[in-house]
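Q: Hi! First time asking for a complex rather than a single chain. Here are the components, and I think there are two in total. Is that enough to go on?
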Amino acid sequence: MSARNPGTELDLGWISRVQVNQPAVIRHAEQIQTRRTVKKVWQAAWLLRAVTCIDLTTLSGDDTPSNIQRLCYKAKHPIREDLLKAMDMHDKGITTGAVCVYPARVADAVKALKSAGCNIPVASVATGFPAAQTPLKTRLDEIKIAVEDGAREIDVVINRSLVLTGQWEGLYEEIRQFREACGDAHMKTILGTGELGSLTNVYKASMIAMMAGSDFIKTSTGKEAVNATLPVGIVMVRAIRDFYWKTGKKIGFKPAGGIRSAKDALTWLVLMKEELGDEWLKPDLFRLGASTLLSDIERQVYHHVTGRYAAYHDLPMA
Amino acid sequence: MAGGCPSMWGIYSAMEYGPAPEGAGSAQAWLEAHGRRFGHFVDGKWLKPEGRETASSINPATGEPLGDTLQGEPEDVEAAIQAATKAFKSWSRLPCHARARHLYNMARTIQKHQHLFAILESLDTGKPIGEARDHDLPLVIRHFYHHAGWAQVMATEMGGWEPLGVVAGVVTWSSLMLLAWKICPALAMGNTVVLLPPTHARLSALLLAELGAQAGLPPGVLNVLTGEGALAELLAIHPGVDGLTVASSVEVGRSLRRATAGMGVRLSLQLGGETVIVVFDSADLDGAAVGLSDTMSCQRGQVPGARALLLVQEAVAEVLLKRVKTRLGKLRIGDPLDKAMDGGALADEAQRLAIETYVEEARAEGAEVFQAWTALPAHGPFYPPTLITGVASSSRCVREQVLGPVLVVLPFRTAKEAVALGNNRPSGLAASVWTENLPLAMEVAQSLQAGTVWINGQNLFDAAAGGGGSKESGNSRDGGKEGLYEYIRLSWQSWPRPGPTELDYKTFAAAYGADPPPIPGHSGVACPTGPELEENMPRVDRTYKMYYGGSQKRPVGMASRPILDPAGKVLAYVADGSAKDIRNAVEAAHKAAPGWGKRAAHARAQVLYYVAENLELRREEVASRLGVLMGTPLEEARQEVDLSLERLFHWAAYCDKSGGAVQETPMHGTTLQLHQPLGVVGIACPDERPLLSFLSLLAPAVARGNAVVMIPSPRYPLPALDLCQIFDTSDIPGGVVNLVTGNRDHLSRTLAQHQDIQAMWYFGSQQGSQFVEWASAGNLKRTWVSHGAPRQWENPTQGAGEEFLYQATQCKTVWIPMGEIFAN
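A: Yes, that's all I need. Here is the structure of the assembled complex.
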C-alpha cells in the first residue's frame, strides 16, 4: 500500500459544477475495449500482473474456517507452480494482493495466512456491508473489531441514502469517522455505484470519499444489481485524476463485482494505464475485487504455457 | 523465450502493450491471386487493354508495393460508360424487389469478406486496422442493407421519380466508406455506376466490384476505372453520363461544377471542410476531451470533416486543454496493421510535408504548438497529433484546410460569439456541440451552418441519416431518403441533355444595357400615347419601381424598360435593374432572412394566407390587367389568378408539414433530420404564366423560411409588380420578398456570382442556365435551372411538386445521444 491519504477539507466547489455525460462515457468505454489489446507473451505477463492485484474474495453466508483456509492458500499460490516455473516467474513472489472476507472471518484468515507463512494482507468489509443500513455506532464498531482481529485493510461501504438525498457534508463526516476508526489500516471506500442513481453522483461520491481520506475508492459490494461496469470505472478514475491534479495525492481504485474473465481483467488494466498511467497498475494503487476471476486467469496462463486449453480440474480450486 | 523477445519478467515489470499485428495473409493472397496486376473492372470482368501505363499501389506505412493498377485512357472511359449504358436498360427495368435482392446480396457478400476488406483498406490507405474493422466496414455493410431497403420500397416511397441513367462516381479521399456512400443510393434507385476510386487507394474499389460480380450483380451495373484524377473530367463531360457524384476537395468540386455547366448532368458534391467543435463551460469536459482526441486520431484528417477546429469557452479553456493534451500523449501512432493503434500512416511524404509546413507557419506566426511525439515510428509518413493555440481567426491555419491530425483552438466568450466564429468560414461540413445545457445545445445546433451536428458526440454516421455539408462543403446528402434525390429525376420531365455550348463566361450578359429594350416608335413598337384622359383629366402616371427591403425603390441606374402588350403597344415602363440593385436587394434579404427563418411555421403560413386573401380581394383587377398584358380572354386570366391563389394555399399548407423527421439510426437517442431554410434564394422567373409561375416559385421558398430576390419575367413583369402592394399589406416582413426588374440574364449573372446567395433558381434560356451553373462554382451555391425547357405551371406536379420542397430546404442531421439512467 502506498502512503496514506490524509484527506482534505471538504470543498463542495470541487463537485458543484461537475457534469458527467453518460452516452459519451459509454462510447469511451466501448473504445477502450476495442482500441487496446495485448497478445501472446505480453498477455501472459499482464495476466500475472492482474493476479497480484486481485483481492481474492469470499463474502458468503456459508463461509467457514475451512473454505477461508483454502482461499488463503490459493492467495499464496494463485498460479500452479510448474506453470510459473515454465515462465521463469516462480521466484517473483506472485501472490494475490489480499484476501477479502467478512469481519467475522478476519481471525480465520489471519490465522490461515500466518500458518502459510506469508504476509498477504487480510481485508475486511465493514460498516454494515453490503447495505450500510445499520446505526453509525455499530458500523464504526465493526471497523474497530476487524482491525483488532488483524485486518490491515478495511473495505467500508458508504451510506447511499446520503448521496441520494444530496447530504454531501454528512457523507464526508461519516467517511471521516470511518477513516479514524481504521487507525493504521488502509481504507477502501465502496460507493455501491449501482445504487447511486447517476454517473454524476458516482463522480461526486468518489470525490467526497477521497476528500474524507479514503486510500482507495471501490465500485461495488458485489451485491448490487449492477456492479463494476467500465463506464462507472471511467468516471471514478476521472475523479481520481482530478483529485491527484488538485492535491498531488494518488488514490487507488478497486473495481469489484462481476469481474470474471481474464479478458475483463485486462480491460481494467488497460483502463488504468490509459487514464491514470503505469503507476496505477500495481497493487498499491489498483485492486480487482473478485472470486472466480483467478481461475480463468490461471486457465489462460495454462494455455499460454502448454498451448492446450485446461479443464477446471487441472487447476486447484480456491 | 527466443532471443529478441523481451523476457516475461521484463514485460511484467514494464507493462508495455507489445505488438498486436493483424495477419495480412488474406489480402496478400488476394493480391497474389491477381498476380499483383489489376485491370479496370468493367462489364462484370477485368478489362486490361494493351499499352496502358501502370501505377503502383503502395502501403504508405512501409513503402511496400502492393500491386499495379492501370492508368486509364479515354478509350477505357468510353468502354466503361458503354457497359454501364447497356446495363442500365435492364437494371433500371428490374422490379424493385429484384434490385433489393441484389443489394442485399452485396451486403451479405461484403459481410462475409469484411476481414479481407479491412486488411486491404488498411494496407492501401495506412488507416489503422481497428478503425477499418470496427468503424468503416460496419458502416459500409449497413449502407448496402439500408439501400436494399430503399430499392425495395422505391415504387411506393419515390413515386413520380426515375433513375438518372449512368452515374459516375469520383472519390479522391481514401475511404471505402465514401465509395459505398456513392454506390448504394445510385444502384438502389436503378442507376448503373462507373466509379473512379482515389488515385492513392484503388484496391478496395476493385475488390468491391469483383465481389459484386461474384454476388451476382449483372455485368456493367458497377464498373470501376482506375487512373489519374484527370479522368474525372472526362467522365464528367461525357454525354453518356447522367449523374456525377463527387467526394473530393473544394477545388475539384468547383472545377467539375464548371466543367459540367449547362450539360444537364445531375451533380452531387460532397466536398471538404472541417468539424467545428464547440465546447461550453457547461460541458462534460472529460467527455469532450475524449471526443477531441478521438476526432484527431480517427481518419487522420484524410476524409472531409476529420480536420477539426475547436472553439472553447474561455472560462474552461485551460482545464479542457490540459485534458486534451494528456489524452493526445496517450494516442498510439504506428503500424496500421497493429490492432492497438489509434493512428496509422498518412497518404505519403508529400502530405506529411504539407502538414509540417502549415504547422511551422503557425508557429512562426506566434502560435503555440503542442505535439504528442510519443513513440512515433522512426520512418514513414507519420505525423504526431498536434494542438495549435494562440492563433488569430485570420491565420492561415484557421482559414485553410490542411488535412492531418491537427487541432486548431480558438477561445470564445459567449454562445453568440461561438456561433459567429463557427460560421465564419466558407465551408460548413459538420459540428459538435458539447454542453449539458439542453436549450443551449439545441439552439447552437440549429444555428451552426453545417450539414451534421453531433450533440455531445462526434463522428457518428449511419446509412439512415443523411450526412453531408452546406456552403462550400457541397450540399449532397449521403444516406436516408434525402440522400436519394441526387440519383433520381422526375418522371414527367423530358431530360434536357444539351451538349456543351460555347459560352463566353466573361462577357455573357455582363454589360448593363447591352441588350436594350425596343425603342417605342421603332421596330414595330408603337409609341405610347400618354395617359388616358377621363373627362379631360389625365390619369395619374403609374410608376413601377422595384421592391426591396419592404418598400418601393427606384433603380440605381435611373433607367426604365418599356413593357409591351401583344399588339406591341407600350403598356408601362418598369425599372431597368442593374448589379447595384441586386446588391441592395440581397443585403435587404439577408437582414430579413434570419428572423423569417425563425418565425413559427404557423406565422409564416398566416402571412401566405393573408397574401392569398388580399389577392382574392383584387382578383378582378389583377385578372383584367393580366388579360390585357398577355392578350388572353378575361376568363383565362381569372383562371390563372385562381390557380395562383390555390398555389399560395398549397404552400401555406406546407409551412408546418415538412419540418423534418426522426431518423432511425442505431444510436441510443434521437437523430433529427431538420429541413432548414437555405437563407437567401435568387429566383429568375420564366415568361410563361407570369403570375402563376412567379408565385409558384416565390411561395415554396418563402414558406420554408427563405428570403427571396425575385427577377420577374422581363417580358411580363407587371403581374409581379402589381403584387408588391399586396405584399405590403399582407404582413410580409420587409426584405423577405424582394423584386428586381430588368434583363433576366444580366441580373441573374450578378445573383449567380454573388458569394452570399445560398441558392439560385433560374427559369430562362439554356445559355443562362449554363452560366448560372458555371458561376455557382464561386461559393458552390445550390442551383436549380430549367435548361431552357418550359414547364406547365398549371399542372400541380410540374408547378408545385415535391421537387419545390426539396429545392427550398436543406437537411441538417442533429445527433442527440441520450442516457442518464443506469442501474437502480
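A: The mean pLDDT of chain B is 93. Let me know if you'd like any chain examined more closely.
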